[in-house]
Fold:
Amino acid sequence: MPDKSNFWTQQREDGKWESKREGADRASKVTDTQAEAWKYSKDHAREEKGEAFLKGRDNKIRERNTYGDDPNPPKG
Structure:
C-alpha cells in the first residue's frame, strides 16, 4: 500500500524531471532540472511529514530525507 505522504523525484523518458506522490499515476510537478524537482519533493514531503526519495539516472535511490517519524532512526 503506497504511503501518500512520500514524494519521489526521478527522470522521465523525455529527459525532464518529475516529482510524484507515491502511488499517483501522474506527476505532481515536471521540471527541466533535477534540483527544481528535488526541492519540490522535499518541500511537500516536509509538509506531509513523509519521505522524499531521489532516484538517479540508473533508477537507484541516491538520496532520501525523512520528515515525519523515521522508521530507521540513526543510533547514538
